[in-house]
């Protein structure tokens, strides 16, 4: 009986992952594909790990399965969010059926920095956060047009 319950959970998890794979193929844009894959990965792996816990019934396996699920639960949404933000800032087109673009007008086009409006301009938030763009005398700015960077590299042994 325990084997049947375990198999049931593993099959349900496998079906969730299969639906996520179909969503990756069928969804019209990057953002919807990420949503489908992230949700199905979390649900599918959760059901599969529940099936593993039920089948083995050992405290060691249970601890490992819960640790794996906690890791997936913590990393999958964060990585999808970061990939989505990178895709949006790179100008990946939204699906033409998209009704609301919550990030429209929130990015400064010249800097590709998300401005929350709390601190003012993005350059102000950079300084307010305590992140100085020049660290240890190395400037983050590009050299003026026509200036060669090779002598700088040679002088500093880089």
Describe the structure.
It is a single chain. This protein starts with a helix and ends with a helix. It is elongated, with a radius of gyration of 24 Å. The protein folds into 2 domains: 2-89, no CATH class; 104-133, no CATH class. It contains 5 helices and 2 strands; from the N terminus they run H-H-H-E-E-H-H. The longest helix is centred in the middle third of the chain and has 31 residues, at 59-89. It is an all-alpha fold and 158 residues long. The chain is 61% helix and 3% strand. The relative contact order is 0.09. A two-stranded antiparallel sheet has the order 1-2. It has helices at residues 2-26, 30-56, 59-89, 122-128, 150-155; strands at residues 107-108, 113-114.
Which terms would index this structure?
single chain; 158 residues; mainly alpha; 2 domains; two-stranded antiparallel ribbon; 5 helices; 2 strands
Layout of strands and helices, then pairs:
Elements: H1 2-26, H2 30-56, H3 59-89, E1 107-108, E2 113-114, H4 122-128, H5 150-155
Antiparallel strand pairs: 1-2
Helix pairs in contact: 1-2, 2-3
Brief overview, please?
Helices cover 61% and strands 3% of the residues. It is built from five helices and two strands, in the order H-H-H-E-E-H-H.
Low-confidence runs of at least 5 consecutive residues? 119-130, 134-140
The secondary structure category is mainly alpha
Whole-angstrom Rg: 24 Å
Number of separate helices: 5
Question: Tell me about the biggest sheet?
Answer: 2 strands, antiparallel
Give the distance, in angstroms, between the N- and C-terminal Cα atoms: 66 Å
Strand content: under 5%
Mean pLDDT: 78
**Taking strands numbered 1, 2, ... along the chain, how are they ordered across the largest sheet?**
1-2
Shape: elongated
Number of domains: 2
Helix percentage range: 55-70%
Number of strand segments: 2
**H and E string:** HHHEEHH
């Amino acid at each position: 009986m325990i084997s049947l319950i375990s198999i049931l959970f593993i099959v349900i998890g496998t079906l969730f992952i299969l639906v996520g794979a179909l969503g990756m193929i069928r969804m019209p844009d990057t953002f919807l594909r990420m949503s489908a894959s992230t949700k199905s990965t979390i649900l599918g792996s959760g059901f599969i790990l529940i099936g593993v816990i039920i089948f083995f019934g050992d405290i060691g396996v249970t601890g490992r399965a819960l640790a794996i699920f906690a890791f997936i639960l913590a990393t999958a949404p964060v990585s999808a969010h970061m990939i989505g933000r990178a895709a949006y800032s790179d100008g990946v087109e939204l699906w033409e059926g998209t009704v609301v673009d919550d990030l429209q007008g929130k990015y400064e086009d010249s800097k590709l920095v998300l401005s929350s409006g709390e601190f003012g301009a993005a350059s102000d938030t950079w300084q307010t956060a305590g992140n100085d763009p020049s660290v240890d005398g190395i400037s983050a700015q590009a050299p003026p047009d026509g200036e060669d960077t090779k002598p700088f590299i040679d002088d500093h042994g880089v």
